């Protein structure tokens, strides 16, 4: 028995950003049409999709109408309200599923899941009060990072604590919300793996890329990452284990810290993203099947595509005004430009990205 969706089926996507746009483009190439659901009037994804619903994520009447018009529902951002995902899943398959989404949305649940599955993370503690925080700082030590359990991204909702005396200030800073305290990991680099799983249980991971951030926003992803060959396999195996244990369907980003001096656990999982991920954009030009096509394959229960890298590659995000250089970048050798067609280039806004390939000599 297979629940493989045939070309011509309709894929519903929650969210109208650039990730939804690139998913819709990949789906179109495979013969699917997409239906974007998002609150915004104009969005990068809606522009390339066959159908659009403009609605609030809490509006169950609109959500039900949307669900009636699609065969499977996915999402391009992880902060889809849990109630929305649960409601939709009573109407149509939601992939990745509600349980995986709930795990990725809450840093404490996520860390507990890793611990239960023997996957290394930073030392951490649950924080509900200032008293919990001072105790955890004594146990874990400083420096440490206080992170809200929910709705953190690109360095938001978190603060570094260098001394026990700074506990109260940090607790105020994150708004006294349920949080976790993490020990500071003395990492040499950050890497990430994109892994796909379909509902047959087939798994396919791409090799790790090495990520550099600027102002808390991803700047570049370089592949291959500067790590030893055995660690490439270890990172891919950890990502596959996470996807399998979560009963995950779709593509997922797994972010790691690389700690070369640590003999037993040189790779520490930072967090997972239950969706296509900025650090996987390199696959669009350096692999036969991109993370976007792979996600569509996975949620439609198609066989997963090859993940072999065909070229060395550096992906660079175009943030804010960077995008004004588009024609210069376009003229660089072996470079492809991916633009999101956003109206205004505000500081910190992701406007597009480039993939620069370094093909090997034949
Ligand atoms: P996150 O939102 O968890 O991805 O954290 C944003 C950034 O903060 C990461 O990319 C790291 O550079 C840094 N960071 C987060 N957690 C830790 C940690 N436990 N130790 C050291 N650096 C961290």
Description of the structure:
Strand 9 and strand 10 form a beta hairpin. The protein has three domains: 85 residues, Rossmann fold (3-Layer(aba) Sandwich), CATH 3.40.50.20; 61 residues, Dna Ligase, domain 1 (2-Layer Sandwich); 171 residues, ATP-grasp fold, B domain (D-amino Acid Aminotransferase, Chain A, domain 1, 2-Layer Sandwich). It contains eleven helices and 17 strands. It is of the alpha+beta class and 362 residues long. Strands 9, 10, 11, 12, 13, 14, 15, 16 and 17 form a nine-stranded antiparallel β-sheet that branches. It is globular and about 60 Å long. The longest helix has 17 residues. The structure holds adenosine monophosphate (AMP). Adenosine monophosphate (AMP) binds next to strand 14.
Give the key terms:
binds adenosine monophosphate, globular, alpha+beta, Rossmann fold, single chain, nine-stranded antiparallel beta sheet, Dna Ligase, domain 1, 362 residues, four-stranded parallel beta sheet, D-amino Acid Aminotransferase, Chain A, domain 1
Query: Which structural class do the helices and strands define?
Result: alpha+beta
By DSSP, the count of extended strands is 17
Reading off the top of the CATH hierarchy, the class of the largest domain is best stated as Alpha Beta
**CATH architecture grouping of the largest domain:** 2-Layer Sandwich
Element-by-element helix/strand order: EHEEHEHHHEHEEHEEEEEHEEHHEHEE
Number of domains: 3
How many helices? The count is: 11
Ions, cofactors and other ligands present here are: adenosine monophosphate
Distance between the termini: 44 Å
Helix content: 25-40%
CATH homologous superfamily placement of the largest domain: ATP-grasp fold, B domain
Please state the oligomeric state of the protein chains shown: single chain
Strand portion? 25-35%
Radius of gyration: 20 Å
Instruction: Give the low-pLDDT segments.
Output: none
Biggest sheet: strands, sense, closure? 9 strands, antiparallel
**CATH fold annotation of the largest domain:** D-amino Acid Aminotransferase, Chain A, domain 1
Shape by Cα distribution: globular
Rounded mean pLDDT is: 96
